[in-house]
Design goal:
The complex is a heterodimer. Chain A has helices at 10-13, 23-26, 39-42, 46-61. Chain A is an all-alpha fold. Chain A has a domain at 16-61: Irregular (30s Ribosomal Protein S18). Chain B has three domains: 10-100, Ribosomal protein S6/Translation elongation factor EF1B (Alpha-Beta Plaits, 2-Layer Sandwich), CATH 3.30.70.60; 105-137; 145-170. Classes of the chains: A mainly alpha, B alpha+beta. Chain A binds chain B through residues 13-15, 20-21, 58, 60-68, and chain B through 15, 17, 56-58, 60, 66, 70, 95, 97, 99, 112, 115-116, 119.
Chain lengths: 70, 170
C-alpha cells in the first residue's frame, strides 16, 4: 500500500528555517518510534530534508527529543 | 536583540544544560559563570536566553530535569576549541552544544518579509473561499436547529431562576 504524499515542502511553503530547538515542528517529521521519517513520507524538499535530519539529531543530543519511544 | 556580524568572526549559538541539583537562582548564577567563560575567551555575546527548568527527554547521569540556557555570540574560530574544552571540564554543566548560526542580511530579511506577506494574503483568500462554501452548503434546516437550541436555553434559565427564588424564600 502506498502512502499519500504531501505535495509541498512545509519549510519552503511557509518560508521557515529548520531549528533544532523547535521540537514541536520537528515532531511532525518523526514517527511513533522517534525515527526520522524519509523525505518521501514527509514531502519536504531534499535540501530541507537534509537540514531536518541534522536538526533532529542535534535536539536528540541536547535531550530535547529522545532517540527511542520509551 | 542585535545579531550583527563583525568581520573575521563567526556567529555561534550555545545551548547548555545545568543539572537538577541546583536551585533556580543557583542555576542563573552558573549561567553567568558560563557567560564569563565565553567573554574571557573574547566572545561578544549578542543574545541570551534562560529557559528555566525543563524535563529532559531521557535521563543524563540520573538527572530527569535540567535548567536550559542559551547564548548567541560572535567569535574567532581559533578560540572555539578552548571554550569547548573549558566547558567540558566545567563540573556543573551536564551537556553543551555549540552550533554555527547563519546571520541573515538586511536584504534577506526584507525578502523574507515580502514572502511572508504574500503567504498571509494567500491564506486569507483561501479562508474566504472556505467561508463562502460553508455559507452556500449550510441549509436552512441547520439554522433553524440553532435557533431552537437558543430558545431552550432561555427557558431553562427562567426555570432555574424560579427554582432558586423559591428556595431563597424558604
Amino acid at each position: 500500500m502506498t502512502t499519500k504524499k504531501p505535495k509541498e515542502c512545509y519549510f519552503c511553503v511557509n518560508n521557515l528555517d529548520v531549528d533544532y530547538k523547535d521540537t514541536r515542528t520537528l515532531r511532525r517529521f518523526i514517527n511513533f518510534y522517534m525515527k526520522i521519517l524519509p523525505g518521501a513520507r514527509t514531502g519536504v524538499c531534499s535540501w530541507h530534508q537534509r537540514k531536518l535530519a541534522t536538526a533532529i539529531k542535534r535536539s536528540r543530543v541536547m535531550a530535547l527529543l529522545s532517540a527511542t519511544h520509551k | 536583540m542585535s545579531k550583527t556580524k563583525t568581520s573575521g568572526t563567526t556567529h555561534y549559538e550555545i545551548l547548555f544544560i545545568i543539572p537538577n541539583r541546583f536551585t533556580d537562582d543557583e542555576a542563573k548564577k552558573l549561567a553567568d559563570q558560563i557567560k564569563k567563560i565565553l567573554t574571557d575567551n573574547q566572545a561578544t555575546i549578542s543574545f541570551s536566553e534562560y529557559w528555566g527548568k525543563k524535563r529532559l527527554a531521557y535521563e543524563i547521569k540520573h538527572n530527569a530535569f535540567g535548567y536550559y540556557g542559551l547564548f548567541e555570540f560572535d567569535l574567532e574560530g581559533a578560540y572555539l576549541a578552548k571554550i569547548n574544552k573549558e566547558l567540558r571540564l566545567f563540573p556543573d554543566v551536564l551537556r553543551h552544544q555549540i552550533v554555527v548560526k547563519k546571520v541573515k542580511t538586511e536584504q534577506k530579511l526584507a525578502r523574507d518579509k515580502k514572502i511572508r506577506a504574500k503567504i498571509e494574503s494567500k491564506k486569507a483568500i483561501i479562508e474566504k473561499e472556505l467561508e463562502e462554501k460553508e455559507k452556500a452548503s449550510s441549509s436552512s434546516s441547520a439554522v433553524k436547529k440553532k435557533t431552537d437550541k437558543r430558545v431552550d436555553l432561555k427557558d431553562l434559565d427562567e426555570k432555574l431562576e424560579g427554582i432558586l427564588n423559591t428556595q431563597n424564600l424558604i
